[in-house]
User: Fold this.
Amino acid sequence: MSLDIFLQNIVNGLSLGSLYALIAIGYTMVYGILRLINFAHGEIFMLGTYFLYYGVLIFHLPWWLSFIVAIVLTAITGMLTERIAYRPLRKAPKISILISAIGVSFFLQNAGIVIFSGVPKSFARPEIFDKMFILGNTRISSINLASTFISVIFLMALLYVVYETKTGLAMRSISTDMETARLMAVNVDRTISITFAIGSALAAVGGILWALKYPQIFPLMGMIPGLKAFIAAVLGGIGNIVGAMIGGFILGMAEILLVGFMPQLSGYRDAFAFIILILILLFKPDGLMGKNVQEKV
Assistant:
């Protein structure tokens, strides 16, 4: 592989990894607080793209305004999901919440097919994302630059919220000991709702950037990216926000470099991600930056 092609793959890997990182954070935030894998997160990712699509198509909103509205609506959807499907089962056995999460995933998938139809729709991309920059012999598309830049901005904003605000302090205290946090006057229900809202908003940003990068949307589009983001969260250490970010970038880079070095294996790109999941569970189940936490029965 020449240096130019290698640099091209690095740029593509950073772009893809930033999207995985955005989605993976939703998994890791919810797990960090509730010890729950929100398997409906991929469908939340999908809804964000449809909110933007119809905001532009039906309500004729400017693209940037539709982007903001889609993020807000997706955040509200995440909060409603928590309120309806998860909060009533908070004191139930973990398996009950897990089954509920899977049920929400199937419900949103099929609701999407009924409401939006199962026919893939072309996702209109603003002209600004069609530009191409030439750096030596490396071609860098504006969508790759934009997705990486926007992802990093949102990730930094999240770190500020989690580590520099009272809401973030409440999140961290609940993740350590929910009952003690409740005794210390932390509003647990509100904090968990905010956690779902933030995770869902980041999933919406990731979904929209994904649709700009691969301009086609359909109701099942969140399945594979959602599973890969889950793998990224496990790789980095599920429950650890920085770990999820690192895991996302590592997974995106590994996928792109695999195809770059061994193009004959491009058809096994998805399988490669699941092999990483199996290996990490076998040899380091707490992830690269995770801690070995005992589950409460």
In short: The chain is about 70% helix and 5% strand. The beta strands are 121-122, 132-135, 138-141, 216-217. The CA atoms of residues 261 and 291 lie 33 Å apart. The chain has a mean pLDDT of 91.
